[in-house]
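In the lab's daily routine, each protein ends up as an entry in a very long ledger. A line of letters takes care of the sequence, but it says nothing directly about the fold. The fold becomes a row of whole numbers, each drawn from a learned catalogue of backbone shapes. The protein below has been through that process, and both of its lines are reproduced in full:
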Amino acid sequence: MLEKNHYLSKEFESFFIKNYPRVKNFARRLLMSEQDAEDIAQDIFLKIVNKPAIWQDPEQSGKYLFTMTKNYIFNLIKHRKIEQNYEKLVIAEKSVAEEFGVTDKLYAKETALLVQYAVEQMPPQRRDIFKMSRIEGMSNALIAEKTSLSIRTVERHLYLALKDLKNILL
């Protein structure tokens, strides 16, 4: 058995020496890349080294090698095209996200300034009640107690404050 494997390895070595440059040159002509051509040629021979039925038939081995190389190259090109499309998509999504991020921040700042302006334009009691409710987080009952007003009056001031903000923002 060892003798048979030695014979096969010598036979494959001869096949490799004869065909490797041809496969590599074929791949290089199609891909215009020395490194890619070497990688493909090595991969092709690694795939067939344990398949003597392929490389022991001199008539079929040449056709099979070039068909295999051609298919390998087409698959490589297709895979690279998919990668490029994916990269373009990721870059486009990132730029859109960044653009919206900047736009959203500017919009938020503008809105905050409009709210601040609107609150400052409110009558003093309404402004104080609004700040206690929305900024300090006080309940209507607590605001009513602090301002000596009824809960209903506090609710009315908050309603009018929110109505003022809505008018300014819209």
